[in-house]
Amino acid sequence: MAWIVCLWAASLLFVSADPVPDGVLAMECHDRSFVIAVDLPFAGDDARFEAVDRTGTYAITESYAARCGYTVTVSRPSGLVELRSSYFSCHTDKQDDGTFAFSFNLLVRRDSDAVYTLNKTCSPSLAWSPREVACQLNYMEVLVKSRASCAPGTKDDNWSVLRQAHVSSTSDWQVMFQRDEDQMAPMSLSEAREQGYVFDVTDGSLMFRAPYGQPDSFIAMVNNIPVEVVHATLFSRDRWLVIMVDLVAACSMHQGTYEDGGHVIFETPEAPYPRPDGTRIQVGFKGADVVTENGTVQVRIPLDVKGGLRKSFVSGGLYEFYTFHLVLEQMFEDDEAETRLRLRRILNTPLLPRPLFTQNRSVIEERLFQVYLGDVPEDVRLVSLWLNGREAPFTNSCSVADIAQAARGHGYLLKVSFDDPAVSQQYFEVYKTMQYSVDINYTLSVLPENELYNHSVSITALAGPSAPVLDATCSESGISFTADRWALDFLWFIGVGSDTLTPELAMQRGYKMSNGSQRLQLDVPVYSQGFRYEEITLEKFLGTFEILMKERQTSAVQKSIKKTCPFVTSELIVCSTDGKMTVVANLSLITPSGATPSTSNLLDDFCSPAEADHSRALFSFPLNSCGSKIKLSKGNVIYRNEIFYSKNSDATERLVVQCTYPLEGLHRLFSTYRFESDDPGAGRIFSRRLGAGFAAAPPRGPVATTRALMPTSTAAARTSAAPVRKRLGSNPGVHYIRVSKHGKPHPDVRKGAKGWKLGSV
Ligand SMILES: *[C@@H]1O[C@H](CO)[C@@H](O)[C@H](O)[C@H]1NC(C)=O
Ligand SMILES: *[C@@H]1O[C@H](CO)[C@@H](O)[C@H](O)[C@H]1NC(C)=O
Ligand SMILES: *[C@@H]1O[C@H](CO)[C@@H](O)[C@H](O)[C@H]1NC(C)=O
Ligand SMILES: *[C@@H]1O[C@H](CO)[C@@H](O)[C@H](O)[C@H]1NC(C)=O
Ligand SMILES: *[C@@H]1O[C@H](CO)[C@@H](O)[C@H](O)[C@H]1NC(C)=O
Ligand SMILES: *[C@@H]1O[C@H](CO)[C@@H](O)[C@H](O)[C@H]1NC(C)=O
Ligand SMILES: *[C@@H]1O[C@H](CO)[C@@H](O)[C@H](O)[C@H]1NC(C)=O
Ligand SMILES: *[C@@H]1O[C@H](CO)[C@@H](O)[C@H](O)[C@H]1NC(C)=O
After folding, report:
1. Nearest by Cα to 618 from 602, 640, 639
2. Does ligand 6 lie within 6 Å of residue 248's CB atom?
3. Which ligand is nearest to the CA of 511?
4. Does the chain have fewer CB atoms within 10 Å around its N or its C terminus?
5. Is residue 449 assigned to a domain?
6. What is the CATH number of the domain that holds 111?
7. How far is Cα 593 from Cα 136, in angstroms, rounded to an integer?
8. What is the 357 CA–ligand 5 centroid distance (Å)?
9. CA atoms of 735 and 725, how far apart (whole Å)
10. Which of 17, 46, 48, 145 lies closest to 87, judged by CA?
């Protein structure tokens, strides 16, 4: 076979460069093609190209591209558009076959039909082989370079072709296609161009291009591999001289196969051309294996090869596929010249199932579910998580972390406490264990389309039941306690001191109790029984209340919560277990004009207020000091003192303050100086008119029933109290007594106090 190339000339010069608009990623001169990559923020359909030369602009449609040496590919879903142009495309401006100037218009439809000019000049550094064949995605191209001399056809050429040329009447170039062994009738180059073929003769090279699937091309099976062949013979006759050039392109049409185990295999014959002396093969993937056996070149591409594209896909289940842009270069050496064949193919795997896996890493000792969802592809994200049908709020007891994997994507580690409200539990009485279970539904999204995929897993674990979760908050009027997961009532009960919290006890003491299916709430108003008080000042004091979570069977305390809250002081009386009375009393109604509470005192004149403001005074003293009077009555011991203005003759009333302790709870009343009571005493404040007898003391008010769990502590600050209600207004629980000074009627009884009554209200 002979290769004859003659010099033919025609050349123009263009050198230009344009500002590249936003979105054009690259304009690159590659060895054998010029590439423009566009990533515009709209779908690929909205970007079009036009080729520009000095004769005009030409829209690059699909068929025009295949004819003229352009390949446009749109990668989904990224929307990356690539225009790849042959150096011998219809509108390249070529000079000396060494400098190639390209000019394109990029038309952006959505961008108000903006037109960008993309100009670039390339001088590829890779030397041209005598014969180059390009198997592009949409066309085949053959380039034959001139040799030193224009030698006529030689050797074993088939002269019947030459005869055809010889009888041709015209000296113009003619082309004759050969299909299998048949020769077609010769046609002029313009006729051939009409049929979609392009011939180009330049200074030193001759180029022939044909789209795939032309009527004059054919599929040959070589080693069972389909190969598309186009064979054109170009000739010209000048009197006795016939110039003839054989142009053959043969491209493997193998579609690629997927081999289980993670390879894509592409095959091409080792020798698509007759009589190659040797083949050198180069593949555009590092990491791809090339095996040549029995005349077949097999390219094996592992799925995880660098340069491959992976995409997740939802179709019932979660799938993935891989795309490879294969570039294969084969070099053939025959006795005349070297041939370089470049083949580009896009190979897709079928949809491959992409299983995710879950791993139970729960730790019973920590009462923690830990579930690892692994092998999540890089383009898949967790968007929501459902635990037993409830969308997971990520709190202290539930968290999820995105974890990088060494290979194959990433994973999510979910941690959920057994005690999270979303976890369901079932108690097995016989085994005294709880079964915790959670159905986890992961909603994953495949980016960027946001296709949703659900993955679910159920996890259970056995562990001992945990006591309800206790919490407490302060309010202006008291303390609120909550017990969450109050489901296993038969296992637990709540204690207030040594008492058991029941609806009856709550009602009796003024606690408000509400009992939901999983949650118990207890509101304890300040001053109610069980409160303890400390740091009492005129402005504020601290109130403390404690509840205990006890095991039903053993009454052992499992948990407890003790809450201390600040409250604003108005009036109060505290009778502590260590024998101290602390009183904040409003003296407005007994303060004679001109006097202030700071000048008031107890029965013992030397006992004056620790603190006082314009209407109130704070006294704090051991029960049996400051002139207190002690009285035993009906199993109780009563300590009583009075607040009054002794230095002021105007004073007609005084306030009585008293603490009542049940005798049986007292340990050290008389034996030692130290006072010690099981329970705090019940305190009362009331006023008495001077002259009224001491015996006229009223019965105990409702506050007198106050009890609190109180360790027999001697710490002075640890006091416990029953409160004093406001003495005026609608509050009914207060008693006022007018008594005359020193038991004698006082001449100076004030009329203004007419609302006051003797006895209880
Ligand atoms: C780009 O090339 C075209 C045609 O080759 C030319 O008309 C135009 O002026 C060039 N533009 C720039 C900016 O160089
Ligand atoms: C030359 O080619 C023709 C048709 O292509 C064929 O019939 C003939 O046998 C060939 N001759 C030789 C010597 O190969
Ligand atoms: C190559 O041919 C040999 C003998 O025909 C055969 O055993 C072998 O399997 C072939 N190899 C391939 C890859 O087809
Ligand atoms: C969670 O997944 C399970 C099993 O696939 C399914 O039956 C259940 O309906 C799902 N729950 C939710 C809330 O999606
Ligand atoms: C996935 O689960 C969510 C929540 O249960 C549900 O709303 C959605 O329809 C599910 N999606 C698919 C594709 O099953
Ligand atoms: C999960 O792991 C825990 C701890 O190892 C185990 O007790 C439990 O049975 C496991 N649950 C499931 C459903 O595998
Ligand atoms: C809460 O309610 C349940 C039933 O509704 C009852 O069995 C339980 O005794 C109640 N708990 C308390 C502390 O009252
Ligand atoms: C004390 O009592 C008087 C009269 O009832 C009232 O006007 C005043 O507001 C009270 N003071 C305080 C601090 O409560």
Report:
1. 602
2. no
3. 7
4. C
5. yes
6. 2.60.40.10
7. 112
8. 19
9. 10
10. 145
| Smallest CA separation from ligand 6 atom 9, residue | 461
pTM of the model as a whole? 0.63
Q: Do 396 and 530 share a domain, yes or no? A: no
DSSP 540-603: EEEEEEEEEEEETTT--EEEEEEEEEEEE-SSEEEE-TTSEEEEEEE-GGGPPTT--GGG-B-S
Boundary (domain end) residue, out of 302, 324, 353: 353
The token pair that represents 588 in the structure block: 């407005």
Q: Are residues 641 and 676 in the same domain?
A: yes
Q: How many CB atoms lie within 10 A of CB 72?
A: 21
Kindly state if the Cβ of 359 falls inside 6 Å of ligand 6: no
> Minimum-distance ligand to the CA of 731?
8
- Count CB-CB contacts under 10 A for residue 424: 15
Print the domain residue range for 53. 2-135
Nearest CA to ligand 3 atom 4: 294
Q: Are residues 606 and 715 both part of a single domain? A: yes
Give the pLDDT confidence of 459-499 residue by residue, as tens digits: 999 988 877 888 999 999 999 999 887 766 677 889 998 89
In a domain, 144, yes or no: no
With a 6 Å cutoff on the Cβ, whether 740 touches ligand 6 is: no
513 CA: nearest ligand 7 atom: 14
What's the gap in Å between 199 CA and the centre of ligand 1?
A: 25
Q: Is residue 141 part of a domain?
A: no
Q: Are residues 442 and 492 in the same domain?
A: no
Say how many CA atoms lie within 13 Å of 468 toward its Cβ. Answer: 28
Ligand number, closest to the Cα atom of 436: 6
pLDDT at position 244, please? 80
Residue 6 in tokens: 């003659």
Helix, strand or coil, per DSSP, at residue 207? strand
CATH number reported for the structural domain that contains residue 621 in this entry: 2.60.40.3210
Q: What percent of the chain has pLDDT over 70?
A: 78
CA of 559 to the centre of ligand 1 (A): 84
Please report, for the domain that includes residue 562, its CATH number.
2.60.40
What pLDDT, in 10s, does the model give residues 492-550? 889 998 899 999 999 999 999 988 777 889 999 998 888 989 999 999 999 999 999 98
Convert the pLDDT of each residue in 23-45 to its tens digit: 667 889 999 999 998 876 554 45
Q: Ligand 6: does its nearest atom lie under 6 Å from the Cβ of 710?
A: no
The last residue of a domain, from among 353, 368, 395: 353
Residue with tokens 């072709």: 161
CA–CA separation, 293 and 568 (whole Å): 95
Question: 228 lies in a domain?
Answer: yes
- 492 and 449 within one domain: no
Token pair 């050969």: residue: 178
| Cβ 119 under 6 angstroms from ligand 1 | yes
Is residue 666 located within the same domain as residue 724?
yes
CB atoms within 10 A of CB 11: 12
Distance CA 43, CA 34 (A): 23
**Is 80 exceeded by the pLDDT of residue 16?**
no
Do 640 and 552 lie in a common domain?
Answer: no
For β-strands 131-135 and 338-348, DSSP reports them as parallel
Non-local CB neighbours of 291 within 8 Å, separated by 6+ positions: 297, 298, 300
Q: How many domains does the chain have?
A: 6
- What's the 436 CA to ligand 6 centre distance in angstroms? 10
**Residue labelled with tokens 């979570």:** 549
**What is the Cα–Cα distance from 94 to 86, expressed in whole angstroms?**
11
- Are 301 and 264 in contact, with CB atoms under 8 Å apart? yes
Give the model's pLDDT for residue 718.
31
Question: What's the gap in Å between 157 CA and the centre of ligand 2?
Answer: 9
Distance from the alpha carbon of residue 360 to the mean position of ligand 6, in angstroms: 6
547 with 435, same domain? Answer: no
726 in contact with ligand 8, CB cutoff 6 A: no
CB of 250 sitting under 6 A from ligand 6:
no
Q: How far is the CA of 488 from the centre of ligand 7 (A)?
A: 10
